[in-house]
Specification:
alpha/beta, Rossmann fold, 3 domains, six-stranded parallel β-sheet
């Protein structure tokens, strides 16, 4: 039996068929038929935002935390649509399944320099997995099904749907909407038996093996399969940057994040390993900077990846296996059991565990508990006060980059970062989306003052919808990473590096949120405890020493002789 409705109503019915619970968006005239249909949608909560970019970060965080598609609706074509680009670029770098929807120019006005005209099909194509522009009203259900299927199919990523005004306003007799079961029950590829045997022999013969767990472990919640394999080998497991929560912090084989931005213990393991099992990781930029400075050139690499084009892309591999990482990990463990593995890595692992324990103790002992507040002292305080089940979001920038491996991640999934896109202004909005996906868990967002200044208008979104996250603003009154480079490589010729930031606790109160301040390190723990207990959106403004700067990308300025 068919039902006559507008294209806008059909779009909302299609979202309902996909079991969509939240739509993030900013109202606009180009999609009024959709908003009118949302008014009657009982199963969907609309989260009105102040900027399409931050709304996309919310959808991104929601998608990463829930494993479902995050939906963002830009109500206006033209400027409303262009504001999506940064958020979609971020989601693409993170392989996050965001379904982005934007109004589009009426079909009859295209190529006429019409009001708010921009070629949205061309605009979004480079920053999404796929982009469509609906040609007619009857195609709307089909395109929504295709959008969700594409976003959620491996390798996941954001998609864009452009819906012209005349398509949304047109009437059509629609068949009942299809449910998504036709693509959500698909199986994932397993490794071939011969490849598993070959990999098992390589690992069994290794004396210094290491497993690198990446997004293929974290995003699938497969830490148990990865740890069972590591335990069978009795070898350390490190994680790729931004995925430090792929493995619970307290596990005895967890070495933490590796690479140029990781900790020295995990990084040394990868530099000295004789066999490296890259389990669901691309061995990409943040892990390696694409150089053998960060990975042993003589190591035999076994790379297991669901994305076939990632295998051997940056480093030659001894064995490349196209497979779902958790599935292959279980296959490998079974094969090693049959080989009656003799735990040849015992000495290597004992040495790593002693070094890891020493490193963690030294991290606490060396923390500077002085005034003004130093990053190491702040991170020690955070480690002591944050709940073990907290989900932590971070920005890019020097303080957040230092914090990434300074926090302890007890519960997968609990770390959400910009990853390879390196975006400032991501953390707070991402945290709001995560809280909606995981309302039972505390969500704590770390930001610098510059990044929070970009996104603080979303405080009213948090207040309006009672999204109770805690934001810790590390306020050092500068763009820290860039100021560090100007100090270390450009003779302190500062330009554009300083920021006149307000006390963000007071700003939060003006928005109706809770504000707390920590002018010195002794104030940090009480302020955060109060923020966690206040049962409302909260901001903790922490004054951090503006001279506590660190240059991460020293490799980029070798030509400066620094």
């Amino acid at each position: 039996m068919t039902t006559q409705m507008s294209g806008g109503a059909a779009a909302i019915a299609a979202l309902e068929a996909e079991d969509t619970k939240h739509v993030f968006g900013l109202i606009g005239s180009a999609t009024m038929e959709m908003f009118d249909a949302l008014y009657d949608a009982q199963g969907i909560t609309f989260i009105g935002v102040h900027d399409e970019r931050t709304g996309t970060h919310m959808a991104d965080g929601y998608a990463r935390a829930s494993g479902k598609a995050g939906v963002i609706l830009a109500g206006q074509n033209g400027p409303g649509a262009t504001n999506l680009v940064t958020g979609l670029s971020q989601a693409k770098a993170a392989f996050s399944p965001v379904v982005s929807i934007a109004g589009a120019l009426s079909s009859g006005h295209v190529y006429r320099d019409a009001f708010q005209e921009v070629d949205q099909q061309s605009l979004f194509t480079p920053v999404t997995k796929k982009t469509w522009t609906a040609p007619s009203v009857d195609r709307i259900p089909e395109l929504f099904r295709e959008a969700f299927r594409t976003a959620l199919s491996p390798r996941q990523g954001p998609v864009q749907l452009n819906l012209p005004r005349d398509v949304l306003s047109a009437q059509h007799d629609f068949e009942p909407m299809q449910t998504p079961s036709h693509y959500r029950n698909q199986s994932l590829p397993a490794a071939g038996e011969d490849q598993i045997k070959q990999a098992a022999k390589l690992l069994s013969a290794a004396t210094q093996p290491v497993i690198i767990g990446g997004g293929g472990i974290k995003n699938t919640g497969a830490h148990e399969a990865a740890l069972a394999l590591a335990s069978q080998l009795n070898c350390p497991i490190v994680t790729s940057p931004g995925h430090g929560d792929a493995i619970p912090f307290e596990h005895k084989l967890n070495a933490g994040q590796m690479g140029p931005r990781g900790n020295p213990v995990a990084s040394r393991l990868v530099k000295e390993a004789d066999v490296i099992l890259a389990l669901g990781t691309r061995l990409g930029f943040n892990s390696t900077f694409y150089t053998y400075d960060n990975i042993n050139k003589d190591a035999k690499i076994i790379q297991i990846e669901l994305e076939p084009t990632a295998i051997g892309r940056f480093f030659p591999v001894e064995l490349g296996i196209w497979s779902d990482a958790p599935t292959a990990a279980k296959q490998l463990r079974a094969a090693l059991i049959k080989l009656e593995h003799k735990q040849q890595a015992d000495a290597w692992t004992r040495a790593f565990q002693a070094e890891r324990a020493s490193y963690l103790a030294k991290r606490d002992d060396d923390a500077l508990m002085t005034h003004p507040t130093q990053p190491s002292g702040l991170f020690k305080a955070l480690r002591s006060v944050l709940p073990k089940d907290a989900a932590i979001t971070m920005d890019a920038g020097t303080l957040c980059l230092q914090a990434t491996d300074a926090m302890n991640y007890w519960t997968p999934k609990s770390l959400f970062t910009p990853l390879d896109f390196g975006l400032v202004g991501f953390s707070y909005a991402c945290g709001l989306g995560i809280k909606l996906a995981m309302p039972e868990r505390p969500v704590v967002s770390l930001m610098g003052d510059g990044g929070f200044g970009m996104t603080l208008s979303e405080l009213s979104t948090a207040v309006d919808h009672n999204i109770n996250t805690v934001t810790i603003v590390m306020n050092n009154q500068c763009w820290g990473a860039e100021k560090a480079y100007q100090r270390d490589f450009f003779n302190g010729r500062y330009i554009g590096a300083d920021v006149s930031s307000p006390p963000f606790d007071k700003v939060a109160e003006l928005y109706g949120a809770h504000g707390f301040s920590a002018d010195n390190l002794n104030d940090v723990i009480p302020a955060i405890e109060a923020a966690l207990a206040c049962k409302g959106p909260a901001v903790v403004n922490v004054a951090v020493d503006p001279d506590a700067l660190y240059s991460f990308r020293r490799d980029s300025f070798k030509h400066r002789g620094g």
